Amino acid sequence: MSKKSAIEYCDIKLPNGVRMRISIPSINEIREIYFWKVYEASRAVKEGDIVIDVGAEVGTFSLKAAYQKAAKIIAIEPHPDNFEMLNRNIESNPLLCSIAEIQPIQIALANILGKVKLYDSEYPGSHSIAGAVDPNKFIMVDIDTLDNLLDHLKISKVNFIKMDVEGAAHYVLQGATETLKQDLHLAIAVYHGDRERIGVLKILDENGFEYKGYTTFGQQTDKNFKFIQAWKG
């Protein structure tokens, strides 16, 4: 991994038995996903769900969904270092993989096809196609739309989409026009600025979704929310 010398990792075992190797800065994501339940405040992943984890990073949410007996999880992560760790964490939990199928895919999602700059960050959870701390630090990655990817995978029904894509959530939704016609649940991180938040809400309104806003501690709020739970049907 290209960042081994720059990032400190640790091995952890969660209360539900999930084993993971994560970066020290990513420990806060464990709190968000497992304890504050920012992506499941209004509706948890259910047994038999088809789950799309957009911005899977090292697999924290994907493995939790597997523990909750989702039928299939598509774990989407474009950065090669994160993707390597994602695969390692999946392989470290063979029992979960016997319960749920986790399919990791190394690609970025938005509203275009081809190649895109993925701006590098010292923090593994902050690589982004939407903006850069240093515009000179980037790698080129493959990019697709969610609609096109699901069509390629022959997945016609989705129950739950979790999304944390560092300011690009509205672009991902713009590439999911067919997917958003379904009755499904969306859990989206929108703490990267008003442009992303407003763009996401506009698309949800246009597609007939109801939604609520939540703080980083999983508390419902109408102001300055960082996460959105949305549903239809």
UniProtKB/TrEMBL annotation:
Transmembrane segments: none annotated. Residues 53-209 form the Methyltransferase FkbM domain. InterPro entries: FkbM_mtfrase, SAM-dependent_MTase, SAM-dependent_MTases_sf. Pfam families: Methyltransf_21 (PF05050). Coiled coil: none annotated. NCBIfam families: fkbM_fam. This is Methyltransferase FkbM domain-containing protein.
